[in-house]
Amino acid sequence: MKKKDIPIKLVWKQDELKKFWAFMTERYNIWYRRFVLGKKYPWTEDTVLRRFKFCNVFRQLDAGSQYVTDKILSSDGDMESIVYNVMLYRLFNIPYTYELLGGFNQVGKMKRYNGLADRLVDAKNKGHKLFNDAYLTAPGNDLNGRIKAVGYLEGIYKVQFLPDRRVLHRLACSTSMFDAWMLVQSCRFFGPFISYQVVLDLMWKFDWPDKDSFVYVGPGAKSAMDGFLQASKLIKLEAASVDTGRRYIDRVYDAAMPELTAISRVGLVKAKFGWDR
Hints:
It is built from 13 helices and no strands. By secondary structure, the chain is mainly alpha-helical. Helix 4 runs antiparallel to helix 7 (148-158) and helix 4 crosses helix 8.
């Protein structure tokens, strides 16, 4: 049997799924009450959701994704520069650091590396947070004693110039989300997960035919999804198994669609942010 023909049967823990959809619905309702209805805190009676921060149900509702849309994707820069700036932002994943490095940079016209490195060191010494905690980044063991942010800056800075700039050109001309994802990973410090965040942003600028089907199932998502499956029926997937992971997430999505539709406020998110799957 070929790998692409592997049958996948999902047997759900229905009680756990009900709890999950209840959580998802209430998390979305918090956003709705706060930003659409304009209500004041508290926006929920759920003590856990009051006390802790959780990602929005839809990615485009997160402040970071809205920042990318407003400051980068909506710019009038050329496509190579848009791609570069999305990569620059997602590497640190925080507006403060992105703006410290000059904000939107035309490829090849970024300020001198040494001056930017000094800015990062100074900010770090003053206690400023240079990375977002939303996801883990590589520790940078080969940075020769420099702070992590400076090593990351060196890696992304070089992408502007030949021979690395060829990657930007190929990304700007990419014809599939999967190909773009693989290309981003060819750049230093861009692993599968961060690269996936980059292409999730870029898909709003590209008419990739696989943008509604390609997905990278990260280890965190994989672990959580397995928690909703009967132990005897768990699908053994490697996080980087793209083909199998795609079919896995498709089945999760198909099962989720009725609930997602129910909490989408009759297309509110789609109308406001262009969300469609």
